[in-house]
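User: Please predict the structure of the protein below. I'd like the answer in structure-token form so I can feed it into my own downstream comparison script.

Assistant: Understood. Taking the following sequence of 420 residues as input:
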Amino acid sequence: MNRANGPGPRSYATHANAASRGVQPSFVTMQMAIVDMVRVSIPVQSCIRRISNWCLCNGVEITEGNGRLVDEFGRIVKPAYVTFLRDAIEVIHVCGFVPWIVAEQDGARFPRVLPLGCFAWHVEVVSDATVDAHIERGNGNPEGSKRRRVSDVYRYRVTIMHGDIDESRVRIIDWMPPRAGAACVSPLQGVYENYIFTQQTREMLHNIAMHNCRKHIYFSEQINTQQLNATSGLNLLDDFRRYALTGERAAAPAGHVRMQANNGRPLNSANDAHMHWIHETFDHAIAAHVLPPNTEAHEIQPIAIDDHHLHQDTVFQHTVHTYFDLPYSVARSTITEKATQHEQLLSEEQYTNIRNMCNFLQFAAERTYTEIFKVSRVQVRLRARPRISMSSADDVKKLFECQVFTQRDVFQLRSMFLNQ
């Protein structure tokens, strides 16, 4: 069913004032994050493109009344409807509905899906006040709105975040029934939670790699307390180590006693004197480092990297393909492993879902066409790609052996592969 957008003035809302208009800021933040995931995640984009290719590979056929559209008018409207339906496939998985407005170009009117990222959405309760305000604005059929007062409990509401778009122009076609609750943010919310865990795993792997690309050394000092014989020996050792490392002396201020190099440059500590002697002796030919007495250096072993991140990537991709109900044709073990032909074919249940998606797209196109052009009879047809596809000569041979091809099919095959 098509539930028109709820009441609300023209708005250019941000995260700050979204809460005052019924949208929780936490919802808005998660919705924008899900939009980013859909646009940057390769498995999600691949599944959306595959569904679009299955449903829209043969274009769209629009029949008004008992005849087809005028050729000149069809050449303008049909490409616009293909774009509209392609955008609708993406937005229904993000929002659960299709928010659209009427656009105009070159004198032709056609539906346009609101761009993802320019709006936030939530579910509101349908009450007498919202329905009456909807009727006063003149959106939709008043009688139909009166009927929704009894039949509908919830409906989607869009809040414009960016752009010069009047919210009263926005119309909505439901794909998933609206329901209230903290989990009602996006159909992809479960995929998004898995995506966040995958990103955290990759960030952890990056931090480990950055840690391992540098040498890490720790130092230990060994003191034989039996040779000191008294606590005064420990104090003397501490004073010596302080002087050797920092040049500070416990008995006299730092400015009263000061070492000096043979070139007159002051030396702050015994280590500076040692380094000066080494550099003068070897003429800066080596990179020398001097450790304090009784100190040993030990190299820390690099952090071992297991295959947990590879497992998490596999889990995420499997989750994405399970949600879209498409064959998981990604190589399991290595990136060079080829997926079998069985993994690339749609099952009967998966192809049924493709047909259901085509039926919804046909309904959305017919609904928008009827509202824009005010016609009572229009039929939109999408011819999905066949479930079985020929990917090699062996497939053609098997179909010939099963006597599937007619004489016309044989002629088309000859024209495809043998004609110059």
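That's the full token string. The first strand starts at residue 61 and ends at 64.
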